[in-house]
Amino acid sequence: MSQSPTHALPSYLDPEHLGPWGVYLQQVDRVTPYLGSLGRWVETLKRPKRALIVDVPVELDNGRIAHFEGYRVQHNTSRGPGKGGVRFHQDVTLSEVMALSAWMSIKNAAVNLPYGGAKGGIRVDPRTLSQAELERITRRYTSEIGVIIGPSKDIPAPDVNTNAQIMAWMMDTYSMNEGATATGVVTGKPITLGGSLGRVEATGRGVFVVGCEAARDAGVEVAGARVIVQGFGNVGGTAARLFHGVGAKVIAVQDHTGTIYNPAGLDVPELLVHVSQKGGVGGFAKAEPLDPKEFWTLETEFLIPAALESQITAENAPSIRAKIVVEGANGPTTPQADDILFENGTMVVPDVLANAGGVTVSYFEWVQDFSSFFWTEDEINQRLERIMREAYSSISQVAREQKVTLRTAAFIVACTRILQARQVRGLYP
Ligand SMILES: NC(=O)c1ccc[n+]([C@@H]2O[C@H](COP(=O)([O-])OP(=O)(O)OC[C@H]3O[C@@H](n4cnc5c(N)ncnc54)[C@H](O)[C@@H]3O)[C@@H](O)[C@H]2O)c1
């Protein structure tokens, strides 16, 4: 064997083009020294349990037959069924879906949800499809991965370019194939089909809750604190509204239409109305436009990246003057930037903790579907807040004890939980 057993790669990956999977492997290597005797099992985290590649043939509206590549990867199911979204994007690759599925294992374990990690995708640009083509591709993909998904096996959810309607088609296709209505096979469904109240706002609410917990640890008073937000969609818009609601001042917002600034604090409810009418924050009257690069240099208590990955880099991290970064987006901070922020004393609440509110309410949706008994929005929000607070508390305790960042602590907590489950279950046969 040419490679050492600890870095053996599966033959289907190209070592020169590992993509996001390579980043994930580095993160596991970073955490291994903290795993003690559980380190014996760490190889299980470095390969997905199961990776299914499917051909998705569809008849297009013009009569042509097109074929698309589809994936469903179950990274780890030691702690429960697989759970993770489905993304429709022209650049989706197996390596990317593998990494995203692994990060779902980490997120679910970090927040202590009884799930493993999974992810799926189709290599297609959905903007090129008609609604009827989108439905056909969704149904064929669901049918192809139907052999490995199911309410107690693996539960997909929406991700990039997929939504409640697509979840409804997935649920219907699976149910038709099974011969019985199975609402619990996907989450993020429409409310009329067993979806959960509170799901839409859940991720932003989780960002707000852990942001407040981090503020207490950092000695920051939330009322009156300055907040800057990149991305004013579902996650960023909700988090901004909740911070505004407790008296924090949202002084700058950046999205794909522009960057706006008001040192006295933006009127967030009015800005939300503006965005729903105009499609973005650009042109908001009660603020001044700001150079996009200056956004990252503003002095602030909270910085919430809630748009895209790799936004905080080695280039802009040295000029960041935020006390606390709460990662609403997935992967907004590169590893080099992470080290720079740490050296400069900025606290980073990592994505696997900060944006776990969405999957937490997906978990509630699944539980409600199983019992066919639905909770009120207040009950959902209270349970979400309790889970987020408990997760923050156990992760920050590890960070203090081990003198590591919250990101490393989240990985320690998550990997320990997964490997303890692996160890106590033992290997079959
Ligand atoms: N929605 C969820 O439940 C959820 C859960 C976990 C993680 N996330 C992550 O949170 C992030 C945001 O998701 P969302 O659901 O709010 O999406 P969204 O589509 O509702 O909003 C995305 C926002 O990002 C902004 N944006 C896009 N390109 C930009 C650019 N180049 N510069 C600045 N801003 C830009 C858009 O203008 C928009 O305001 C993503 O990384 C997503 O993976 C979302």
Automatic annotation (TrEMBL):
GO terms for biological process: L-glutamate catabolic process. Residues 196-426 form the Glutamate/phenylalanine/leucine/valine/L-tryptophan dehydrogenase C-terminal domain. The active site is at 119 (proton donor). It holds the Pfam family ELFV_dehydrog. Substrate binds at residues 83, 107, 362. PROSITE patterns: GLFV_DEHYDROGENASE. The record marks 159 as: Important for catalysis. GO terms for molecular function: glutamate dehydrogenase (NAD+) activity; nucleotide binding. It comes from the Bacteria. NAD(+) binds at residues 203, 234. Keywords: NAD, Nucleotide-binding, Oxidoreductase. Belongs to the Glu/Leu/Phe/Val dehydrogenases family. PANTHER family: GLUTAMATE DEHYDROGENASE, GLUTAMATE DEHYDROGENASE 1, MITOCHONDRIAL. This is Glutamate dehydrogenase.
